[in-house]
Amino acid sequence: MGSIALATLSLSILLFQISCKKEVNAQNTGSYVLPAATTSTLGGVIVGSGLSISPNGTLTANASTAQLNKLVYSKITFDSGGTYKGAEIWTANYDGTAQTKINVALPSGIVFSENPSPKLSPNGTKVFFTAGPASTYNPTMTTIESLYSCNIDGSGAVKIIEGTTISRIGDHMAY
Q: What residues have CB less than 8 Å from 139, skipping those under 6 apart?
């Protein structure tokens, strides 16, 4: 009786292992194409960027190992008398070398926000930042700041999200 139970258990484990078969299709294109998601299978889960879905539901993840080693940041500028002149957007390598100002060609009448909060796109070709109508700084003023993008060389600046009204009261902001 014990040998029948042991044989049944062994057969159950073998069937379970066969039903859990994993399949990977390697491709030389630098991308891994996951199977399409259905009602019974998810097709795969990926955390991170480089994910796209085709019209037929195929999930594709780009297997890029390239790292930009770049950062983007803003500098606040003042004239020799200490008067606020505006913000600038700069890039640099992670180690601080190759600091380069991005000369953004903003539309007429538009200036960077006091803190434009620049962000670099994952592929390093675009910069995102906040900007709005030119005005004189006043601690109690109300302004509208929008989200803009431009190419990494500063060309092609466009508004991508219409801004909201920001009211400043002293050192605080209310959205």
A: 168, 169, 170, 171
